[in-house]
Each structure stands twice: as structure tokens, then as C-alpha cells.
Amino acid sequence: MRIIVRIVLVLAALLCAGAPALATPAVIDETTGRKIDELLAVRAESPGLSRPDLIERLSARLLGTPYGANMLVGSATTAEELVVDLRRVDCFTFLDYIDAASRATDRGRFLDELVANRYIDSRVEFTQRKHFFTDWAARERVAATDITATLSPAALTTTKHLNAKADGSTYLPGVPVLDRAVTHIPSEAVDAAVLAGLRTGDYLGAYTPAAGLDVTHVGIIVTTPTGPVFRNASSLAQTYRVVDTPLADYLRTVPGIVVLRPL
């Protein structure tokens, strides 16, 4: 029988800053609780490991985790919930959980870090959710640096009107349109020099030229003796789980890449 544990998360950082207290209940099922504890144990067993290598080791523990679409709950008309569910993950929640685990030492800290990753200024609200990959490098709390432009002279920068569809409507009603310069490297320009600049633990997004979006999929770079792989929560019917995809194969399916390096 599944045991449901209700945890009330109090954001101490907000209290220290003098902001209003925010208590957010998070329901953690038994499987998710066990996986969080496994991730925390990996971190505890690796005190001298660099953060990139820690991200690789933690993410390896989620290989094979089933894919789940649209895992988060909230909209302009539905109250935002703090979802913590490692029974299945989508590509964004996969990154959320791994990044949080790489910074945490216990469950309480894990939840604090998860909220800081997922929400601007740790405010658990739909309008404050980091809906776009590049938010991780642009919105508080900044979790990564966008290094795309440094990897290749072929990098291109496009001003995107994030959340604005070509027909003038929005992907996410209630979320303002945000103008942002998004830099990507076209897939055909990802040469040996670019690959040499990638590191294990880098976060990679699949750039899209579509109006209103920066990327369509995200994952983690892992360097191996046979070349880099793209560790990702795949929605492809033949996989539908967290897998390692040879980066060279993945590049043939996307227009380009955006690379963020965790801080």
C-alpha cells in the first residue's frame, strides 16, 4: 500500500529576506521518497566529486525512469501545485530533480532547491514558473550560465518573443510575453571544436525556430570514451523513458542546440 507523506515546505530564504512566509504542501509518494533518498545517498557518498561529475552520477540513477508528459500542475485557472514525482519524469522535471539533488543534503534542502530551480524567486505560482529553458540562465534564482556563444563562431542570436505564437495568441495564457535574445549553434555547425567544449553535466536544449519558444527538449551532456551522449527523458514511443542517446544521432533530428553550464 502506497504511503503518502505530506510535507509542509517553509521557504526559510524568503523569511531571511523579509518576504512574506510561504508554506507549500508537497505530496511525496513512497517510490518518490525512496528515490530522493537514493539520490541524497549518492551525494553523501561523493563528497569530493566535482559538480559536473556529481550531476552525471545522480542522473545515471534515473536511467530507465518512465517518461511522463506534462508532469506539473497549474495554469491561469488552476492553482499551482508543488509536484514532486520521480515515478515518471518529463524532460524539464528530470533536470529539476537532478539539479536539486546535486545541491541538497537532506529532503528539506532538496525541496528548497527544487522550488528555487522551478520558480522565479522561489514563488510557487504558475506565473512565476520557469517555463522556458533559458529562464535557468536569466531569471532568479540563476542556476546556470548560457555558454552557447562561447562554443562556436557559428553561433546565431535571435530575438525571441517567448510565449507569443505566430498568430498572436499565447502558448501559456496568463504568462506575459518575454523578449529574449536566444543564441544557438546550428546542428550542422556542431564540429569537433564544439564537442571538445562540451562537458559532462552541461544542460543542452534543442533549439527551435518556432515563434514563441526557445527549445523543444532538454537533457544532460555526458562525455564517454566513445563520444558524448545526450541523457534525456525521451518521449519517443520506442524509448519513453530516461535514456542515453548518442549526441551525434540526436543532432541529426534537431535544428540546433543551446547549452547552459550549471553554476
TrEMBL record:
Q: Which keywords accompany this UniProt record?
A: Signal
Q: Which Pfam families match?
A: AmiA-like
UniProt signal peptide: 1-23
Q: Which domain of life is it from?
A: Bacteria
Matches recorded under InterPro entries = AmiA-like, Papain-like_cys_pep_sf
- Would the keyword Signal turn up in this protein's UniProt record? yes
Gene3D superfamilies per record: putative xylanase like domain (2.30.260.10), Putative xylanase like domain (1.10.3670.10)
Q: What is this protein called?
A: N-acetylmuramoyl-L-alanine amidase-like domain-containing protein
